[in-house]
Each structure stands twice: as C-alpha cells, then as structure tokens.
Amino acid sequence: MSGKFDYVAWLRAASPDWLNDLLDEIGVLEGVERTTTSIILARKIDRTG
Fold this sequence. Notes:
Elements: H1 16-27
C-alpha cells in the first residue's frame, strides 16, 4: 500500500444503512481525523484464484 492512506479496512455490509452506521462509529474514534470511502458495486474480475 502506498499513497496518502495510513490504514485500509475492507468491509462488507448487509445494507447501506449498516455501512453508514459503521462509518459513523469509525469517524468518532480517537485519532481519526477524516475518512475516505470507496464502494465496490460489482466484481467484474475474480482475482482470488
């Protein structure tokens, strides 16, 4: 990993509301100044195998 990020977290949410709540919880943690969120809508290439 390189670039402007200190940490990357891969999350899977059952719903947009659940994801929103989780991001709110992360945002108020001590030391968190800002977050950037990217959402994958579909997987076009399977690179797991």
